[in-house]
Design brief:
The chain is α+β, with helices and mostly antiparallel strands and 135 residues long. The protein has one domain. Helices cover 52% and strands 19% of the residues. A three-stranded antiparallel beta sheet has the order 1-2-3, with helices on one face.
Protein backbone atom coordinates (compact mmCIF):
# COMPACT_ATOMS: atom_id res chain seq x y z
CA UNK A 1 0.00 0.00 0.00
CA UNK A 2 1.31 3.42 -0.97
CA UNK A 3 1.92 6.14 1.57
CA UNK A 4 0.16 9.48 1.30
CA UNK A 5 3.43 11.14 0.29
CA UNK A 6 3.86 8.59 -2.52
CA UNK A 7 0.34 9.36 -3.77
CA UNK A 8 1.07 13.09 -3.65
CA UNK A 9 4.30 12.45 -5.58
CA UNK A 10 2.46 10.48 -8.28
CA UNK A 11 -0.12 13.25 -8.65
CA UNK A 12 2.61 15.86 -8.81
CA UNK A 13 4.45 13.98 -11.56
CA UNK A 14 1.21 13.61 -13.51
CA UNK A 15 0.38 17.32 -13.22
CA UNK A 16 3.97 18.22 -14.04
CA UNK A 17 3.74 16.30 -17.30
CA UNK A 18 0.76 18.48 -18.27
CA UNK A 19 2.86 21.62 -17.96
CA UNK A 20 6.07 20.19 -19.40
CA UNK A 21 8.07 20.35 -16.17
CA UNK A 22 11.09 18.14 -15.67
CA UNK A 23 10.83 15.54 -12.93
CA UNK A 24 13.68 17.17 -11.03
CA UNK A 25 11.40 20.18 -10.39
CA UNK A 26 8.57 17.95 -9.17
CA UNK A 27 10.15 16.06 -6.28
CA UNK A 28 7.95 16.21 -3.18
CA UNK A 29 10.03 16.20 -0.03
CA UNK A 30 8.62 14.89 3.25
CA UNK A 31 11.22 16.61 5.42
CA UNK A 32 13.05 19.88 5.13
CA UNK A 33 16.43 19.94 3.43
CA UNK A 34 16.86 23.31 5.24
CA UNK A 35 17.80 25.03 2.00
CA UNK A 36 14.70 27.17 1.47
CA UNK A 37 12.88 24.61 -0.66
CA UNK A 38 9.45 23.46 0.51
CA UNK A 39 8.37 20.11 1.90
CA UNK A 40 5.07 18.48 2.88
CA UNK A 41 4.09 17.43 6.38
CA UNK A 42 0.95 15.45 7.13
CA UNK A 43 -0.68 16.01 10.52
CA UNK A 44 -4.13 14.81 11.62
CA UNK A 45 -5.36 14.44 8.05
CA UNK A 46 -4.18 17.91 7.05
CA UNK A 47 -1.30 18.94 4.85
CA UNK A 48 1.32 21.50 5.78
CA UNK A 49 3.38 23.00 2.96
CA UNK A 50 6.45 24.29 4.76
CA UNK A 51 9.53 26.19 3.70
CA UNK A 52 12.45 26.56 6.06
CA UNK A 53 16.11 27.37 5.83
CA UNK A 54 18.83 26.81 8.40
CA UNK A 55 16.32 26.24 11.18
CA UNK A 56 14.17 29.30 10.36
CA UNK A 57 10.65 28.67 9.11
CA UNK A 58 9.94 31.01 6.20
CA UNK A 59 6.30 30.00 5.75
CA UNK A 60 3.79 27.31 6.60
CA UNK A 61 0.51 26.83 4.76
CA UNK A 62 -2.09 24.37 6.04
CA UNK A 63 -4.99 22.76 4.21
CA UNK A 64 -7.18 19.69 4.38
CA UNK A 65 -7.59 19.83 0.57
CA UNK A 66 -5.32 17.70 -1.58
CA UNK A 67 -6.22 19.91 -4.55
CA UNK A 68 -5.06 23.00 -2.67
CA UNK A 69 -1.79 21.31 -1.72
CA UNK A 70 -1.19 20.23 -5.31
CA UNK A 71 -1.94 23.79 -6.45
CA UNK A 72 0.73 25.12 -4.09
CA UNK A 73 3.27 22.59 -5.33
CA UNK A 74 2.54 23.04 -9.03
CA UNK A 75 2.19 26.83 -8.83
CA UNK A 76 5.75 27.10 -7.48
CA UNK A 77 6.96 24.97 -10.38
CA UNK A 78 4.89 27.04 -12.83
CA UNK A 79 6.44 30.23 -11.47
CA UNK A 80 9.93 28.78 -11.98
CA UNK A 81 9.05 27.82 -15.57
CA UNK A 82 7.55 31.26 -16.20
CA UNK A 83 10.64 32.98 -14.79
CA UNK A 84 12.90 30.89 -17.01
CA UNK A 85 10.69 31.73 -20.00
CA UNK A 86 10.91 35.46 -19.24
CA UNK A 87 14.68 35.29 -18.94
CA UNK A 88 14.94 33.63 -22.36
CA UNK A 89 12.49 36.12 -23.90
CA UNK A 90 13.32 39.30 -22.00
CA UNK A 91 11.99 42.58 -23.37
CA UNK A 92 14.17 45.41 -22.16
CA UNK A 93 12.33 48.44 -20.83
CA UNK A 94 9.29 46.36 -19.87
CA UNK A 95 8.60 45.18 -16.31
CA UNK A 96 9.72 41.54 -16.35
CA UNK A 97 6.68 40.56 -14.30
CA UNK A 98 4.39 41.25 -17.27
CA UNK A 99 5.77 38.23 -19.13
CA UNK A 100 6.32 36.16 -15.99
CA UNK A 101 2.77 36.63 -14.69
CA UNK A 102 1.20 36.07 -18.11
CA UNK A 103 3.15 32.84 -18.63
CA UNK A 104 2.52 31.72 -15.03
CA UNK A 105 -1.25 32.07 -15.43
CA UNK A 106 -1.11 30.37 -18.83
CA UNK A 107 0.86 27.40 -17.46
CA UNK A 108 -1.61 26.85 -14.62
CA UNK A 109 -4.43 27.11 -17.16
CA UNK A 110 -2.97 24.01 -18.82
CA UNK A 111 -3.90 22.09 -15.66
CA UNK A 112 -7.41 23.47 -15.22
CA UNK A 113 -9.50 26.63 -15.47
CA UNK A 114 -9.94 26.88 -11.69
CA UNK A 115 -6.19 27.04 -11.13
CA UNK A 116 -5.85 29.59 -13.93
CA UNK A 117 -8.44 31.83 -12.25
CA UNK A 118 -6.82 31.38 -8.83
CA UNK A 119 -3.43 32.38 -10.25
CA UNK A 120 -4.96 35.36 -12.03
CA UNK A 121 -6.58 36.53 -8.80
CA UNK A 122 -3.27 36.18 -6.93
CA UNK A 123 -1.48 38.25 -9.57
CA UNK A 124 -4.17 40.95 -9.42
CA UNK A 125 -3.63 41.26 -5.66
CA UNK A 126 0.12 41.55 -6.13
CA UNK A 127 -0.33 44.28 -8.72
CA UNK A 128 -2.63 46.29 -6.46
CA UNK A 129 0.23 46.64 -3.98
CA UNK A 130 3.08 46.68 -6.50
CA UNK A 131 1.91 47.87 -9.95
CA UNK A 132 3.95 47.27 -13.08
CA UNK A 133 6.82 49.68 -13.53
CA UNK A 134 8.04 49.86 -17.12
CA UNK A 135 11.24 51.80 -17.77
Amino acid sequence: MKSVIEKIQESTYSLGEQIGASRSLLIVKSSSPEDGSPHVEINSGEFDYVCSERGFEIYRRRTASLDELLYWIISSVAFKLASDYELANRIFGVDSRRLIFSKYISILGQVNEEWEKKASDEVKLILINAPYSDA
